[in-house]
Amino acid sequence: MALTRSFKDTVQARVARDPAFKQALLTEGLNALLEGDVDTGRAVLRDYINATIGFEALSAATGTPAKSLMRMFGPGGNPTASNLFAVIGCLQTASGMTLEVRAA
Fold this sequence. Notes:
The mean pLDDT is 91. Helix 1 packs across helix 2 (19-34), helix 1 crosses helix 3 and helix 4 crosses helix 5. It is built from 6 helices and no strands. The chain is globular and about 35 Å long. The protein is 68% helix and 0% strand. The N and C termini lie far apart (48 Å).
């Protein structure tokens, strides 16, 4: 029987070796939120956080407890706008990307 890797491990490995994938993951998570697909957006951002900065470092950067952040981006999470934008700001800083919204 072949050994398989978990989805989380696969995403973390891909983010570590592929900067374009890392950027696309963050972009897709935020686009999903902007399009109203909040569940998908939170799930993608959770994967991004786990694969990059991690919830402990994000907690230190935002001043929000790590467990609260994990709940916010979990299946039943409901982050406030101020928490969500604080997280997005920290993720931009950590990634070195500057994101902007444009009308399509």
